[in-house]
Amino acid sequence: MAQTPQQRRANNTFAKAEERKRGKPQGEVLRKEKPAKAPISKTWVCKCLSTSLIHLSHALGIYRSAAE
Q: In this structure, what DSSP letter does residue 27 have?
């Protein structure tokens, strides 16, 4: 299967980067580090906490019905 021009450019870029690394010790080779990403989004954390607080308040009887 033939490469597309985009794939060829990407492969050439990768090959050049690998060629620059050859012959250097492991410590000298600079690696790009991606910033650490949280395993769960802030939205899910907030939703879970708010749901837990609502359930806890109902269990403790903080919310009372208007009929009482």
A: T
Helix (H, G, I), strand (E, B) or coil at 33: coil
Instruction: Dump pLDDT digits (tens) for 36-50.
Output: 888 888 899 999 999
Which residue shows structure tokens 């907030």? 46
Cα–chain center distance at 58: 34
- 43: amino acid identity, one letter: T
pTM, two decimal places? 0.38
Q: How many CA atoms lie within 13 A of 51 on its CB side?
A: 6
Tokens of 32: 């790009």
Question: Within a 10 A sphere around the Cβ of 48, how many other Cβ atoms?
Answer: 11
